[in-house]
What does this fold into?
Amino acid sequence: MKRLFALILLCLVPGLALAQGYQLVEYQGVAYEYNPKITTILYAGVDSDGPMTTTDRYSIAPRADTINLIILDEYHQTMRILAISRDTMTMIDRYTMDGTWRDRYVSHLGYAYTYGDGGRVSCENLVHAVSRLLGGVPIHEYVVTNQSGIVAGNALVGCVEVTVPNNDVAHLHPELTAGAVVTLTDENVADYTLYRDISIPFSNNGRLARQETFIKAFVSRVKAMVQADPEAFWHSVEANAGHMQTSITRSQYLGLAQKLQSVSFEAQRYDYLGGFDVGDNEYDEVYVEEAESWPLILELFYLER
It folds into this structure.
């Protein structure tokens, strides 16, 4: 019953009309147009370790645990980050083992990566699912890493410093207690960003809070390094290519580096695509109420006409 009620709510968006796909939107009597000065990069962290490989068999890839959309807005000269729970229920494409498209159905967003080849198809399937969730706004590039990639990425930027928001991983690492200011290392960064107690309903919410502190610090370090020496940073990224999948080529990176230098990033520019939890099934489910999410979507991606 709860799930049926949640699915009904997903369809209720008072005052919303899509005039021309995602480009023109009317919401509560006000017309909006898509901001063409935006560049979006999807970052996802998947629950695997070691080198990231593509397989011939579809639908056995790991799940995306961390999903964030980086929004470079040259019109407002800002960079914002939108965090999306991997437990968000939305439409995703399924493929059979041999790679044949099967159907599109409602499931956890994180499984969009699973229904692919563990490579480009998985990445693009996740990109398309996130785009649909946000009303069809385009996602231009993607970067996907795994647990090994998080360790390597933290080392690449010189190990970030965070203020720990909760005690969720204190039993694994005593230094990671709520309120502590800690420099994350090879030994604790994976648990800090990825661990959750699956016996506790919606423990992913605590993990999202820790990921926020890490991503804010990480992005600030990356921005500083790119501004200081963009070529050196690119070479460092290339050295970690085995733990990363990306659509960004070297020439695209140089253009993104220029955009990155033209925008400012502030800690408060980190947003969550909110939703409500439904806990009567085997797995946690988060449902986005479009009536509440559209004001944020309009703020992030649109300009009032």
